[in-house]
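Consider this record:
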Amino acid sequence: MRKVWIGLGVVGVFAALVAGGGWLMRGRLAEAGMSKVYRQIMAEDPIAALPDGLHVGLCGSGSPMADPTRSGPCVAVVAGRDLFVVDSGPGSTRNLLLMNLPPPRVSDVFLTHYHSDHIGDLGELMLQRWAAGAAKAPLPIHGPPGLGPVVDGLQEAYGPDRGYRIAHHGEAVAPPSGFGGASHAFTADPNAPDVLVLEKPNLKVWAFPVSHYPVQGAVGYRFEYKGRSVVISGDTGPSERLVRASKGADLLLHEGLAPNLVADQRAAALAAGRENYARIFHDILSYHTPPEVAAREAKEAGVKALMFYHIIPPLPVKALEGPFLGRSRAIFGGPLKVGHDGDFASLPAGGRDILWSNRLNLLPF
């Protein structure tokens, strides 16, 4: 028996030494692991790895309200081998990188309107696309009237950085001609048909007016590629034009504000004497859409699936998704999701399936 205990003791000591050695070597092990990750990321073409079709990812599912789990509103759309971005909220460019959707691959940007939470990362996106991709031409940016001053102002703000990077890396890495964005403004008239803002082989991108008063010219977008279609609402209250533009779409990404939860915020603000916040919580009700109303719109439009983004208020725990949705699931009978950063929907060309994943959860570390 004594020999058995001695043997177990030796094994225990050996295991402790191995564990201790692993602990002491943890830095080198971590470095070796990250080197492998870097080689994998640099070698991959993440767009080419996707099946032909339409793919939609949330590079930002939040709103102006601080939420540790959600960046500002941003939707990545892959159509075939082209990567597009709709809106560029704060923190969204970092999410694109974490989702392995590299900014240098962005073909065009589409803006729904010019509230700060929808353009807060546009300067960073333009810079990343240029400096990381040695772009030789500015990033095409599409949006309603007012686009030019927004893009010009961001280019001016990033002007010193442009100079630093050209001086440091040289013009081969940072071509002066590729800095910034090229504005392509359009008008989506409420009394006119939807606007075809981009057309490529097998791809059409339509813009349509939405209701976001006092914001003038706010729009949503519909992407159509090889028989698949996705609609992105942008910020809007209930909108008949959105219903019309969404007819038969495979997937509708709709903003959502839960009045019951915002009422809790307003009550807390009033109790604390924060009149300014209380007024804001009251005012935002008039130009956003309750989830149950969005569910009715989705049902009326006959869309196949509905996903909420631009979530108001923050939902830091999953248990809040029920109060956020209310009766939405009973109203809309199709697949319905409360969006999270990294959520990714794949719509293979010529089919009907929607395959769900999360590209942030697929990180190898």
